[in-house]
Amino acid sequence: MKERIESSKMTSKGQITLPKAIREHLGLKTGDTVTFVEIDGLVYLAHNFESAIRIMQKAMEGEAEKAGLHTEEDVVKLVKEIRSKNNIS
After folding, report:
1. Is 18 left (phi over 0), alpha (psi -120 to 50) or beta?
2. What are the phi and psi torsion angles at 10 (to 5°)?
3. Which end of the chain is more exposed for a tag (fewer CB within 10 A), N or C?
4. pLDDT tens-place string over residues 8-18
5. Residue 46 has what DSSP assignment?
6. Which residues are bridge partners to 45 per DSSP?
């Protein structure tokens, strides 16, 4: 994985300018929408929703197994338990 470290100041309105190297790497053009994903204190920037989903999938890899979720039935059971616990229909 190649690392890029760039800096940018934030304005009083919370605006930042993405450094040119980052814009070029992400293929961003004027009018594009960017997505910010925060996972465990790290913020990822993606040039579209699909990229953000890929980042989240990678970050969540193996978490279902760690939680003991091996089948679709396990997931359904967990959802029902959480809904019941939180009085959600």
Report:
1. beta
2. -100, 140
3. N
4. 999 999 999 99
5. E
6. 36
Instruction: Phi first, then psi: give them for residue 25, nearest 5 degrees.
Output: -60, -40
Sign of the Cα torsion 45, 48, 53, 55 reads negative
C-alpha distances in Å from residue 46, one per residue of 64, 68, 73: 24, 30, 33
Q: Convert the pLDDT of each residue in 38-71 to its tens digit.
A: 888 988 888 876 777 787 888 889 988 898 999 9
Which residue type does 66 have? K
The amino acid at 64 = A
More confident residue, 54 or 21: 21
Q: Would you say 44 and 37 are in contact if contact means Cβ atoms under 8 Å apart?
A: yes
Q: Which of 43, 38, 57 is nearest to 8 (CA)?
A: 43
Q: What are phi and psi of 52, to 5 degrees?
A: -65, -40
